[in-house]
Amino acid sequence: MGVNFNNDNNNSINRKEFENNLARKSTWMTKNERDKAMSIFDAVAGDDKIFSADEAKQVFAELQALDIDKNKSISKEELNNAKNETELTKAMSKIDDEKTRDSFFTRIIEFVKTLKTEEPTQKDTEKPNTATEKKAQHETIAEERGYKETAISKDRKIFYDEQNKQYVRWSDKNKNFIKLNGMTDINESGVMTFNGIRCRYNDNGKLEKVNDANGQIGEFKQGGTGDCWLLSAVTALNNNDAGKEMLKDIVKADGNGNVTVSLKGANKTYTISADELDSKDFGEKSYSKGDRDVLAIEVAVGKFRTEILEMKNKGQDVSQYSSFFSSAMNTEDVLDGGDPIEAIQLLTGKSASLVSSGADNFEEIKSKLPELLTPPTSTADNNNPTTKTIVSIGLKDTGGGGHAVTVLRMNDDTVTYLDTNISSSKPQTMNREEFFAKIGTITYSDLSSPVK
Known about the structure:
The chain is built from 17 helices and 21 strands. The chain is of the alpha+beta class.
């Protein structure tokens, strides 16, 4: 009987049976492919090395991910989104090259279909009587052998054998450690490098690939800190033709998870390591969630603001940076509080204008918003140009504070905007009269103007 990828029953196959299947039913696999399959089994299967139908989905997904970069005719997005045999087969059907269709992915599909799903024997599932006994046993042996703990030793019983330069995992079934072929690193955030793929166990205990930065701004959502002033500026730039080009120069990913952020206004550059991004992404709730490039921008701006605070505390002159930081900055949360004008000028080096509700020209600028948001005439090179000007609005809330949003367009009846508290890519609408009544500040910048 074939594995049902949507079945969470207890049907399973143990490690030995899995290995036998590889040798007996998968003669078309190379030795290297079989070694990869076994190493993934060891990393994904439970402590007793019993391979359940649910875990079959994981092993399938991980094996699928191994050769993504080798098949350029397959869309990475399609492969990453393929969660089961049917979806992957659908993606494969788009490939014209027969040789590519007969790739490792296709062979893995056929292999997974052949897996036995018999109930494990009592011997297979035998475990120590108590959690205390299990813990004492593997920890004692690890200590005797000089194994070093990792960030996931407690939850996953994975240690580092320094003498043999390899990672090992405790097997409750075998009452011994098994080496993890293909695992080359585990950082303090529990992110593993496995067969060249950075992955981690999620909150549900399942192995998932880490979505590293790629130099392009994707979807994200604001975290716990009050940095809407920064995120609304990033969103405004990312929804503008000229702004997108600027972001490509501001954020550069190296393909290994590390990101370099250039703050053009302050003429400062920060390189944020993959490990640091992991610690912010998985260890703290204050930063945005979703796109790693945006997270890198937050970390870089946080570093810049920390430097300014340290300079001020030492009595040093920071007047040259006065356009890029707020008097509201505090050491407890350096990203909390600011205005979009600071972010736009810091990121791009372009000048921007901020008009508050109490200013003499506030009503005049507010009345010009439709004009500022009107795109220029189409050209031969661009049939759907965006506006030259980006607009970020500070909306007043009932508590006396404010929240910055990015305005995309407006007509006589409604205003369409992006709120990073909800999503950076899901437009919201509000009655124009109601929206105008809530405006506390207007920040705008003509991106076609020269760098100041």
